[in-house]
Amino acid sequence: MAESVYKIIELVGTSSESWEKAATAAVEQAARSLEDLRIAEVSELDMQIEGGKIRTYRAKVKVSFRYKDH
Asked: What is the pTM of this model?
C-alpha cells in the first residue's frame, strides 16, 4: 500500500442559525478551493453574543486533504 501525507488546515465557519450550518459553511467553502478533502473535525464551538442574544454561531473546523508535492 502506498504511503500518503495529509495536510490539515483550520477554518472558522459562521451562521446566524446553528453550529451545524456554521461547520457546513466552512467545509463547503474549503471544497471550492481544495482538492481531495478527507476528514473534517469540529474542534471548537462558540457563539458571538450581542445585547444578551446569540448573534452568530461559530464552528472551528479542522479539514484534512491529501498533500500533493508538485
From this structure: 0.85
